[in-house]
Structure formats: structure tokens, C-alpha cells
Amino acid sequence: MRFSFFKKPLRTTSTLGERLREVRQESRLTIAQAAKETGVSGHHLEALEAGQYDRLPGDVYTKNFVRRYARWLHLNEERVVEAYEQERSVLRPTEQRLPRQRGLPASITVTLVAKRTLITLLIIGILAYLGWEVGKIFAPPTLIVESPAASGMTHESTIEVFGRTDPEAAVVMNGQSVFVNEDGQFRESIDLTIGRNTIEVSAIKKRGKQTTVVREVVREEARK
């Protein structure tokens, strides 16, 4: 049995901007190209990729060009905008949430320090979660081939191959596109020749992220 499953490890601490930059660079695209084709200022795109939200305009304008940038990179627009909204809200300065107070009794000072510590820990936890969510947007798709479950032998002239993947992924089986329903399930019959047959199933996301599973089935001549 030969089984191949390729999946790039996720860096859960990556920000949305870092992952957007990775997708752009993997496609060998420049900020100048992005600015020209999306109509978004290069300075704003650089600020977005750097996570410098204080350099970006208001939320309404920014969400609009985040959507355009995601579309240009062939990413899920809604999920990218949602990740942006969550990350920007978390990264707002904590000073805006806790007023400065001077000359307070020691007990109150300790309470404020404890509150700031809890807020800091909360922000770290939320950022880790957001990193994980962002990772899912850019990760290779899940691919499970349920049948054939393993390589083997058969006397049949055809074999049914089915399984499931992410709903937004495209499935290619031995170089041919296969229909994927709204639940991510696919099913296809493959003709077998006498001898060893290799069945290669690939789930592909936009911008080339893919996962591949390989099965080998040996067809024996039917006994007379």
C-alpha cells in the first residue's frame, strides 16, 4: 500500500497579514501588481500585511479593500474579512480600555495590575485562536478517500472511488475533474486494466494548495 498525504504545518501564531503576504509571495506577485490590479493603495496593502492597523483608514473602507485583496488572491472573501474584523478588534490598544489613575492606594493598584494581566492573557489567547482560524483559510484541504480504503486486488473491470473533502475544494482523479457536492462528498467509477492500476486523487484549493492520496489496485484476470 502506498499512501501519500501532504499537509504544510500551520503556524498558529501567524497573523492574517503574514498569511496574506505568504500567499502573494508564493504566487510571485508584488505589492505594486496588487495595487495596480485591485485599485488599493500600496501603502495600505503594506500596512495590512504588516498588521499595522493604525495606518489603515476606517473599518468600512478597509473591509472593502480587504475583500478586494482576498478576491485578487483567490481566497474566501467572507472568511478573510471576518478574520480581519476579529484581529483588528483584539489589537486595539489596551490603554483605551483601562483609564490611567495615579496616586491610588496599593490595594487598588494591585487590582488594576491584575486586570491588566488578565486582559493581556485574554488577548494572547484570542490571538492564538485567531491564528488557528487564519491558518484554516490558507491550509491545504482535507482529503479522505473512503473507498478503496487501501490498495488491493480485484477481478472487477471497474472500481468505485469515493470520499470527502472541503466543500470549496476541487477534486481531480487521475487528471480528470470530479463533481463535489455541497457537503464536500465525491464519487466516481474508474475503469481498471489488467495488472497494476494507480488511482491518484487530489483536492485542490485556490492558489494551488492541495492534498493528494494515492491508491494502487491490481486487477487480475477472471478465472475461467
Low-confidence stretches: 1-13, 94-101
State the order of secondary-structure elements, H for helix, E for strand. Answer: HHHHHHEEEEEEEE
Fourth-tier CATH superfamily name of the largest domain: lambda repressor-like DNA-binding domains
CATH fold call of the largest domain: 434 Repressor (Amino-terminal Domain)
Structural class: alpha+beta
- The best one-word shape is elongated
Binned, the helix content reads 25-40%
Supply the CATH class of the largest domain: Mainly Alpha
What would CATH call the architecture of the largest domain? Orthogonal Bundle
**Terminal Cα separation, in Å?**
28 Å
Radius of gyration: 25 Å
Q: Main beta sheet: strand number and arrangement? A: 5 strands, mixed
SS strand fraction: 15-25%
Strand order of the largest sheet: 2-8-7-4-5
Question: How many E-type strands?
Answer: 8
Q: Please, how many helices?
A: 6
Work out the count of structural domains.
2
**Could you report the average pLDDT, rounded to the nearest whole number?**
79
